[in-house]
Write a structure and sequence with these properties.
The chain has 553 residues and is α/β, with parallel strands linked by helices. The chain has 21 helices and 17 strands. It folds into two domains: 211 residues, P-loop containing nucleotide triphosphate hydrolases (Rossmann fold, 3-Layer(aba) Sandwich); 268 residues, Nucleotidyltransferase, domain 5. Helix 2 packs across helix 3 and helix 11 packs across helix 12.
Length: 553
């Protein structure tokens, strides 16, 4: 069995990183106006255990809240830096220096390559650092080391590969890392219910560096909300003597070439945004919309979809999409007392044909007896025209999605909604954020996609709380129920379904459980009356009375 060779001495470069930045034949061309890089040179000295001058020591104290740096430097650092502060270039510099000037061969077995990995939310975002890095490795002194180059990686002759990777904890696990560079960490997913939360990715990077002495982990970002790995590091390590260095600095501290007037104008337009973007202060006007615990308490485990049932009136909400960027989603709900029951969820992921998905959704809506659907205001008239082609009336929602989310919150916190066991739906609801504008008005939205959450909010709140279209849709629910009570089964229910003589609660719902326990007495069989129901001609005032009585009951 092959064993890994080890030396007692740690890898040491033949030249310091500061000397490399001052040498015109190495990295000097990137740092011509050196006075504007003073703060960054102080950071590099601290990181690599080099002696500081008095002015640099003052910068260190200002940016870290510590009195003195660790004598041997740091192997892990979190940089909370304002935008345009220069962090991408510095991360690229460190990666190029570690790749070209360190000898990692004593810590690699035959055929094994050490990797310097640039990780971002997606590959496109990581390419900013990667472009700098490739240029630095292409200088005459180092160009001869390049053996192979692709759009996402560079292989060097010293068995080191520099590679960009989208944030995914599963793919990281197979690497041996000599350095991990995490770009814009504050904007990675943070919720543990999502596919790749930031904590899982950082947790996968650290073991990949365990066998490499002097391997470095650098996490850099402008700040965002007070959550996630960046916020936790800032809260835990800033101003504390620990092995993790936290360096927090505003844009002009790190890059004084950014005009002061530009920063002042940004603060004038939006102080909260500018404080995060250029002041490197996490936003205090953004908070999580709802707790994961509250959402999961509404999930009926093992319930993935409920079939159409005779005698039940259903409602649907569509979040349309053109098929190239966002998903197109549909949620179908019904109501039991004051509770919204989610029956079915559909998501069409891009790319797709909007015409084909509209036809598919129309078939599903009709199977639940729905001939009128409400949807998000999107792309003018095409959703209405396409659904009408398939026999479904499409009405645009009278309220923006932020209002729908606001009305969804009491349903979740009061457990007045039963959600399907649908991980993506739960994750999207949990990813919603509440943001307070300068005017004091709150808005609710997600940093990423929330198409499923939007359709759930529209379907559930429209059914329970709000009037979708000028006072008609919510009363139409009671109109149909009145017709059902007076005239027998709904004509919209397929004929091949069995007859029911009493209300059929959704399996595993609260009402179903109460009926099983004998707490709900089944209604006597209904008498079917021939002829036309008078309920179909009920006036709006009478429908309102029906609705009010139902809400009270």
């Amino acid at each position: 069995m092959m064993t890994r060779a080890r030396k007692a001495a740690e890898p040491k470069p033949p030249i310091s990183i500061i000397a490399a930045c001052q040498d015109e034949a190495i990295f000097g061309p990137w740092f011509k106006d050196r006075e504007t890089w003073t703060a960054w040179f102080a950071f590099l000295k601290v990181m690599f255990g080099l002696a500081l001058e008095d002015a640099e020591h003052a910068i260190f104290q200002q940016c870290t809240g510590r009195t003195a740096p660790a004598p041997g430097g740091y192997l892990e650092a979190t940089l909370v830096i304002g935008r345009r502060g220069g962090k991408s270039l510095i991360l690229a510099l460190i990666a190029a220096f570690l790749a070209a000037f360190y000898d990692w061969s004593p810590y690699l077995t035959g055929g094994e390559r050490g990797t310097i990995m640039v990780v971002a939310a997606d590959r496109k975002q990581a390419r900013s650092i990667f472009r700098y890095l490739k240029e630095m490795l292409s200088i005459p002194l180092l160009a001869g080391m390049i053996q192979r180059e692709t759009a996402d990686s560079v292989d060097l002759s010293n068995n080191i590969t520099v590679e960009i990777l989208a944030a995914n904890f599963r793919t990281i696990r197979s690497y041996t890392l000599v350095a991990g560079l995490c770009d814009e960490l504050a904007f990675w997913p943070t919720d543990e219910g999502l596919a790749n939360p930031d904590s899982e990715i950082i947790g996968a990077i650290r073991p990949a560096m365990a066998t490499i002495p002097k391997a470095m982990l650098l996490k850099a970002s402008s700040p965002y909300a007070k959550r996630g790995e960046l916020w936790e590091d800032l809260k835990r390590y800033f101003g504390q003597d620990s092995k993790v260095l936290v360096w927090q600095a505003a844009t002009r501290v790190m890059n004084p070439s950014v005009p002061e007037s530009f920063i002042a104008e940004a603060y004038e337009r939006d102080p909260a945004n500018a404080a995060a973007e250029y002041g490197a202060e996490p936003r205090s006007d953004i908070e999580s919309f709802v707790s994961r615990e509250a959402v999961e308490a509404c999930v009926i485990k093992g319930r993935f979809e409920l079939p159409p049932m005779k005698g039940v009136v259903y409602s649907g909400f569509v979040d349309p999409s053109g098929g190239s960027a966002d998903s197109m989603t549909l949620t179908i709900c019904h109501r039991e007392a004051d509770r919204a029951i989610v029956d079915a969820i559909r998501e069409a992921k891009p790319p797709f044909s909007p015409e084909a998905i509209t036809a598919e959704f129309a078939v599903l809506l009709k199977s639940y007896g729905i001939k009128r659907v409400v949807g998000d205001k999107y792309a003018g008239l095409w959703p209405r025209e396409r659904f009408e082609t398939h026999g479904i009336v499409y009405e645009a929602s009278a309220k923006p999605k932020s209002d729908l989310y606001s009305e969804l919150l009491p349903l979740i916190n009061g457990r007045r909604i039963e959600l399907l066991d649908h991980n993506k739906a739960v994750a999207q609801i949990c990813s919603l954020e509440r943001r307070t504008a300068r005017s004091g008005k709150d808005s609710i939205d997600a940093l990423g996609h929330e198409d499923i959450a939007n359709s759930i909010a529209g379907a559930a709140t429209g059914l329970i709380l709000q009037d979708w279209s000028g006072g008609r849709a919510i009363f139409e629910v009671e109109r149909r129920r009145a017709a059902e009570r007076a005239n027998g089964p709904s004509p919209f229910i397929p004929n091949d379904q069995p007859e029911f003589d009493k209300p059929q609660w959704a399996k595993n719902s609260v009402e179903w459980a109460r009926e099983q326990a004998g707490e709900i007495v089944p209604h006597p069989p209904r008498e079917k009356v021939g002829g036309t129901s008078t309920a179909t001609r009920t006036t709006d005032d009478e429908i309102r009375e029906l609705f009010s009585a139902t809400m009270k009951g």
